[in-house]
Amino acid sequence: MARIFNFSAGPAALPLEVLETAQAELTDWQGSGMSVMEVSHRSKPFIALADQAEADLRELMGISDDYAVMFLQGGATQQFALIPMNLSAAGQTVDQLVTGSWSKKALSQGQAVRTVNVVADGAESSYTDVPAPESWNLTADAAYFHYCANETIGGLEFQTVPDVGNVPVVCHMSSNILSRPVEVNKFGMIYAGAQKNIGPAGLTIVVVRKDLIAAGGKGLPDILKYSTQADAGSMSNTPPTFAWYMAGLGFDWIKRQGGLAVMGELNKAKADKLYGAIDGSGFYASPVALAYRSWMNIPFTLANPDLDGVFLAQAADAGMVNLKGHRSVGGLRASIYNAVPMDAIDALVSFMEEFERKNG
Ligand code: PMP
After folding, report:
1. How far is the C-alpha of 141 from the C-alpha of 42, rounded, in Å?
2. Which of 42, 124, 229, 358 has its CA 20 to 30 A from that of 209?
3. pLDDT tens digits for range 119-146
4. Which of 80, 175, 206 to mutate to test the pocket of ligand 1 (most atoms within 8 A of CB)?
5. What pLDDT digit, counting tens, does each position of 168-199 carry?
6. Are the C-beta atoms of 298 and 336 separated by less than 8 Å?
7. Residues in a beta bridge with 192
8. Reduced to 3 states, what is the DSSP secondary structure of residue 77?
């Protein structure tokens, strides 16, 4: 069967080349007579793979030696809890910005651990916009400021890094990491689940300023401390070796595309084309404020929502799947991460035009 156009929000489409390399190497990795899944994480070949993947990620994102890079398990969800435990101490306030489902989830976990000041909450706009930064209620001595760079469900993405003075910025980047260039030096910490723009699920990337974790996490069990995993090269226990290998193949693929500047241009062009089709019709609509429209997750509605099911069924027949909006918001959503090619956007736009002609 031919490959289908997969608009899944995550786990999501991976580059065909990456999958084919993994397939070719599956039973005999590097002439070892074994799969990469069957070797020790402490073996020399695996350590070399792990080091190369980290070096490639550092090169792609421009991560300096001031930052630790970790390859962990537990997903972004586990980070929601580990961040307050590690980057703040009892008695300190942490600042969190709420812009949609995922930053709300992060808020609930922050509140389980610390006193949280909600800097602003976009509920009034149903999370289709972000309250004006001038209205944010920032804490001058907050342990850190947490926000979600791209809300996967709402399709709301920050185009710039919020300016919060000297407070370290902790950025949740699950659904837009590696989608465009990023100024890592503006952040205290960046974290992301791998299953959208990097590789398979089961791996979480954490990039964190070493000085922020050196003294943190007092009283925590070792396995919950960032410093434990940073000191152990993410191998305090067995890391997700296959996901790490796949991430390495993914980093290499992005490097071969030309790096994040090229990915960013392509992703912008893909998003512009799809928003253009939505805005240019009288039939489709995007709910998200112009300034915060995501390049990665594009929710849209039909003039007649009763046709959502027909749209999805006919799109699937035409080779385009996973276009249903998240159950919490409904409507439709196209997730167009790095591995979703321009051909997929062209096919979707043609299908949308045809669907509108028949049903508009
Ligand atoms: N944050 C964001 C922005 C997400 O899109 C998702 C998954 N859809 C999650 C968190 C949940 O992450 P995980 O399952 O890796 O814990």
Report:
1. 42
2. 42
3. 999 999 999 999 999 999 999 999 999 9
4. 175
5. 999 999 999 999 999 999 999 999 999 999 99
6. yes
7. 205
8. helix
Q: Which residues of the chain have pLDDT under 50?
A: none
Topology of the domain covering 19-257: Aspartate Aminotransferase; domain 2 (3.40.640)
Pocket test for ligand 1, best of 77, 96, 171, 174 (most atoms within 8 A of CB): 174
User: Could you give phi then psi for residue 187, rounded to 5 degrees?
Assistant: -115, 145
Which residues make up the CATH 3.40.640.10 domain(s) of the chain?
Answer: 19-257
Q: What is the DSSP string of 298-322?
A: EEEEESSGGGHHHHHHHHHHTTEE-
Pocket of ligand 1 (CB under 6 A): 9-10, 75-77, 102, 148, 152, 174-175, 193
Six-digit token string for 94: 């942490």
The domain over range 258-359 is classified in CATH as 3.50.50.100? no
Residues 6+ apart with CB under 8 A from 20: none
Please tell me whether residue 209 adopts helix, strand or coil conformation: strand
CA distance 321 to 63: 35
Nearest to 14 by CA among 245, 234, 189, 206: 245
